[in-house]
Design goal:
The complex is a heterodimer. By secondary structure, chain A is mostly helical. In chain A, 71% of the residues lie in helices and 0% in strands. By secondary structure, chain B is mainly α. The longest helix of chain B is centred in the first third of the chain and has 32 residues. Classes of the chains: A mainly alpha, B mainly alpha.
């Protein structure tokens, strides 16, 4: 088993780092180029665009998700009639695989499709380019991503909320605390590790995004590279241009960013405990 | 704490609104799988198909591309991943939890390290490696990389370490061999955790997109996730939304079934997978 991980996990990582220092193109034997690939990336407009797009996507896929999923969890943590049924219905977007999410939303976001009807019908607008406008397309990606991510992270918050000892809330209630006070002074401090987890996990997931940009967009990464993210650039360099060295260099940059997030998460958790 | 009637109503309405907004795309996907093409595009939308198509759109999807072949490939891939990860995860997790051997700490660290590696880092070097094995565009190339997930080892070690040592001692006194004991005593006790693990691995493998996309070229070898794009962006052909929605529904059914029949394990699995980091 250790052999399996060595062959299919550890070796490829080391091989990938080596690859990022070469100019391998699948045909000719690789030449050693040192850090040239990384140096070139700094001047590569495609890479800089993808880097910026990824950061924008990460911003849109973390903060709103963090807030909305917490609100959803607080709502569904209350006791009211029909709660379980509505919670299950709310949770449905978690079920379909990402590709299905992308295909379904591609239909919904058709220029004269359902979302246009919902958003524009009252003003007589009948056509909106959700996916072929350089401003709207990246926003659409974020909205679709968040739609599937919010119910998932609600689940994590609910697990955190379930871990709060009920005595704490009862005591606060007896002391005459309002629900808002209870939330700020009892729930939130108890939810600290959950809060860090949701922030870290949503950031890591967002850095790796690529399926939505590949399938949802009529032209992967388009229009005009406005939805080109790092994950898509790896695919483009590696399997479209066969520039394996550059693709591996882009992967290495992604890995570094994800490791930084993981390190930040560990630090936050250590400080909390 | 139970809220007062007025607050109850407000909570209910808020939850209802949230549920409707979030479930609407799923509703639209399923109903559209039974609509004729013009009805899918109809504005204002049709909440239910007026002219119910029965399985017509599913048949159309299967004629345009080998939908059932995709489904079988996805099933094969996911089941192999589930069986391998669950069995070896339980075996290794049990070993790490209950046996002391030299290098245990290092080996466990080694396994956990593989958990932190995002797949996109692996895809290029792994592709070159698998191609060198001559496995590109084949079932072994599609299935073997990624069939053993270190998360299984990690999760099973946690559950196995909670098993009481006395139970294993009792087994040894009764003269059970170590592997026999694993099969007869440990596996049944771990069963709930194994089910959660199996579900989460199934979800991951069923939805896998990047690896099948790069490693397989033949239509007949493709999985459902990649095959789906045939309908939404067909080559030199207008998008076929009815067939796309029918195929999307087919791709969602297995996971929906797991959710309906194993809801508690499903939620446990998802939560455990999130907390791994």
């Amino acid at each position: 088993m250790v052999g399996y991980f060595a062959v299919f996990s550890i070796f490829p990582v080391l091989f990938g780092f080596t690859l990022s220092l070469t100019d391998y193109d699948l045909l000719d034997p690789p030449n050693w180029v040192g850090l040239d690939n990384f140096r070139n990336l700094l001047a590569d407009r495609l890479f800089l665009t993808a880097f910026a797009n990824t950061l924008i996507f990460v911003a849109g896929a973390t903060v709103p998700v963090w807030v909305a999923s917490l609100l959803a969890a607080l709502l569904f943590d209350q006791i009211f009639r029909g709660r379980n049924l509505l919670k299950t219905v709310f949770f449905l977007p978690v079920l379909p695989p990402v590709v299905v999410v992308a295909v379904v939303w591609r239909m919904l976001l058709h220029p004269n499709g359902v979302v246009t009807w919902l958003a524009g019908a009252w003003r007589g607008v009948t056509e909106i380019d959700w996916l072929s406008n350089t401003v709207l397309a990246p926003l659409s990606m974020i909205v679709v991503h968040d739609w599937a991510a919010i119910p998932f992270f609600m689940l994590i918050w609910l697990a955190g909320l379930a871990g709060i000892p009920p005595e704490l809330r009862d005591a606060a209630h007896i002391d005459g605390a309002t629900p808002v006070q209870t939330f700020w002074h009892i729930d939130l401090p108890q939810l600290r590790s959950t809060a860090v987890l949701v922030a870290a996990l949503s950031t890591i997931n967002a850095f790796q995004t690529f399926t939505l940009q590949y399938v949802l967009s009529p032209d992967p990464g388009g229009p005009a590279n406005s939805t080109l993210v790092l994950g898509l650039l790896v695919l483009k360099y590696g399997f479209q241009y066969f520039r394996m060295g550059d693709a591996a260099a882009v992967s290495a940059v992604m890995f570094a960013m994800i490791l930084a997030v993981t390190a930040a998460q560990l630090r936050f958790n250590r400080r909390a405990s | 704490m139970r809220a007062r009637p007025r607050a109850q109503l407000l909570l209910f309405l808020g939850a209802l609104a949230a549920a409707v907004v979030f479930a609407f795309p799923i509703w639209f996907m399923i109903t559209s799988a039974f609509k004729a093409e013009p009805e899918i595009q109809a504005i204002p939308i049709h909440w239910l198909p007026h002219d119910f198509q029965w399985l017509g759109r599913f048949r159309e999807a299967a004629e345009f591309a080998p939908l059932w072949r995709y489904f079988l490939n996805s099933t094969l891939l996911s089941l192999v991943h589930v069986v391998v990860t669950v069995f070896f995860g339980a075996l290794a997790g049990f070993g790490f939890a209950k046996y002391r051997f030299p290098g245990r700490g290092f080996l466990f660290f080694f396994v956990i390290c593989t958990l932190m590696i995002p797949f996109q880092i692996l895809v290029v070097p792994l592709f070159i490696e698998v191609k060198a094995f001559g496995w590109d565009n084949s079932y072994p190339g599609l299935i073997i990389p990624g069939m053993m997930n270190a998360f299984g080892v990690f999760m099973m070690r946690q559950y196995a370490s909670e098993l009481p040592d006395e139970l294993l001692e009792a087994g040894r006194i009764d003269g059970a061999g170590e592997f026999h004991m694993f099969l007869r005593i440990v596996l049944p006790l771990l069963l709930p955790a194994l089910v959660s693990l199996a579900i989460i691995v199934f979800i991951w493998s069923w939805g896998a997109f990047l690896w099948p996309l790069v490693i397989v070229q033949d239509r007949e070898l493709n999985v459902l996730a990649v095959g789906l794009t045939n309908y939404s962006q067909p080559y030199q052909h207008a998008p076929m939304w009815g067939a796309a929605m029918a195929a999307s529904t087919v791709a969602t059914i297995p996971i929906a079934c797991l959710f309906v029949f194993f809801q508690r394990y499903f939620i446990k699995g998802l939560t455990a997978a999130a907390v791994k980091g």
